[in-house]
Amino acid sequence: MVVSNYRIQGATGEWEVVIGLEVHAQVTSKAKLFSGASTQFGAEPNSQVSLVDAAMPGMLPVLNGECVRQAVRTGLALEAAINKFSRFDRKNYFYADLPQGYQISQLYHPIVGEGEIEILLGEGDRQVTKRIGIERIHLEQDAGKLMHDQHPSFSYVDLNRSGVALMEIVSKPDMRSPEEAGAYIRKLRSVLRYVGSCDGNMEQGSMRADVNVSVRRPGESFGTRTETKNVNSVRFIMATIEYEANRQVDVLESGGAIVQETRLWDPDKGETRSLRSKEDAHDYRYFPDPDLLPLELTDDVLEECRASLPELPDAKRHRYEQELGLSAYNASVLTADVESARWFEALLEALTARAGKSPQEVGKSASNWVISDLFGALNRTGATIETSPVTPAQGAELLALIADGTLSATLGKQVFEIMIETGRDAGLIVEERGLRQTSDTGAIEAVIAEVMAANEDKVAEYRGGKDKLFGFFVGQTMKAMAGKANPAVVNELLKKKLG
């Protein structure tokens, strides 16, 4: 295991940061954990609330089997132990957005036990790996939401989220830097999206993290931790860790003590603030939910879940390196998100069919084009791979036109920019705008003759030994032909003409 060298330099020496994350991931399901109410995002307040969600008298919860299946599939993807026996408990507390007066969760017998996840640290060829332990994954229902901006004097309650199924994925305190925490969240989000158990949309709140941070002298025992609740972006998680760790160092070095408490992150001020003192488990008066039988999984269920898993990001990354010959960097970029991997594989399929070549023959050039040209254009225009105006089939046509000499690399970039702007096919753009590359030796020779006649002094200098001027003649010829000349033919003819 690679140990981070991230340290905080305090006035009295170095401090090490210890980080654990509790990620709440909304389970992909059309219905809630214990009711048939919809989970669709963005609905009108209180329009997706069943009698169970609203805790009406006499209502009994009925477990959603799909939520169980997705939690098991997630655990298998994280190489975690699946507990055939699990049980739901009542976590008792009173808050305005919790109509039952308790939350149904799993404390003593979670559905998933220990596992781990591999993260990549560093960039390029200097990337190293580290494995972060998973403590447990348990299922629980979400609470509702208080709205404080609807009335000048009152807070309103929206119960649309009440009862939505969550997987709480609890890491071990194995992370030692904001970079490691960021890599962990990105990798976990990637796995969840590959599996299809959570959409990972942090902006909509379907994935958020409670950030546990403590500091210690290197090699000493763990210090007192604080928990910052509901941080909803990778950038904010990393900023929370950096701010909170430095705050704790300042407190300790000034002779103070860290209080175990719950805090919140203020993105506008870039700081954490105290919310409440941290409760211990017994404060919640946990006990087995009397309305729900224990959950017992059969071997057949586990096997079906295992068989339903797709190729996961680590396996796909290794395959890209070994079978397609991609660099470690290219393979990691293309497999970091499931939609990017799907787009790339659709491109490869279309390109091999069009060019009549194997994936191994076109994989490297295709990956370089996706990462450099396509991703660069999407970032520049604010689009995503899902909203790309260029489809994999269109990308394959463009690359095939470059490969067969119809387009030069320069012309290919021009055509691609038009494709990004218009969404039109490369072949149509080439025909309509006359951008086809020419290998007509007669036409190219005529232009070369004109360039040499207009630059007789430089011709004499080149023939006198200034070999670097060769690039000048190539550039002038290509410019005169509006970039449509075949560079290989231009080079060959120039060498003959210049002698």
Tell me what you see in this structure.
The chain has helices at 65-77, 178-195, 234-253, 299-307, 313-323, 328-335, 338-355, 359-381, 392-403, 409-422, 426-433, 441-454, 456-463, 470-480, 487-498, and strands spanning 8-10, 13-26, 85-86, 89-92, 102-105, 115-121, 128-141, 145-147, 156-158, 165-171, 207-216, 226-231, 261-266, 271-277, 287-288, 295-296. It is of the alpha+beta class and 499 residues long. It has three domains: 8-306, no CATH class; 311-433, no CATH class; 441-498, Arc Repressor Mutant, subunit A (Orthogonal Bundle), CATH 1.10.10.410. Strands 1, 2, 6, 7, 10, 11, 12, 13 and 14 form a nine-stranded mixed sheet that branches. Strand 1 and strand 2 form a beta hairpin. Helix 1 (65-77) packs across helix 4 (299-307), helix 2 packs antiparallel against helix 3 and helix 5 (313-323) packs antiparallel against helix 6 (328-335). The radius of gyration is 30 Å and the shape is elongated. It catalyses: L-aspartyl-tRNA(Asn) + L-glutamine + ATP + H2O = L-asparaginyl-tRNA(Asn) + L-glutamate + ADP + phosphate + 2 H(+); L-glutamyl-tRNA(Gln) + L-glutamine + ATP + H2O = L-glutaminyl-tRNA(Gln) + L-glutamate + ADP + phosphate + H(+). It holds the Pfam family GatB_N. This is Aspartyl/glutamyl-tRNA(Asn/Gln) amidotransferase subunit B. Keywords: ATP-binding, Ligase, Nucleotide-binding, Protein biosynthesis.
SSE layout and pairing:
Blueprint: E1 8-10, E2 13-26, H1 65-77, E3 85-86, E4 89-92, E5 102-105, E6 115-121, E7 128-141, E8 145-147, E9 156-158, E10 165-171, H2 178-195, E11 207-216, E12 226-231, H3 234-253, E13 261-266, E14 271-277, E15 287-288, E16 295-296, H4 299-307, H5 313-323, H6 328-335, H7 338-355, H8 359-381, H9 392-403, H10 409-422, H11 426-433, H12 441-454, H13 456-463, H14 470-480, H15 487-498
Parallel strand pairs: 12-13
Antiparallel strand pairs: 1-2, 2-10, 2-11, 3-16, 4-5, 4-15, 6-7, 7-10, 8-9, 11-12, 13-14
Helix pairs in contact: 1-4, 2-3, 5-6, 7-8, 7-9, 9-10, 12-14, 12-15, 14-15
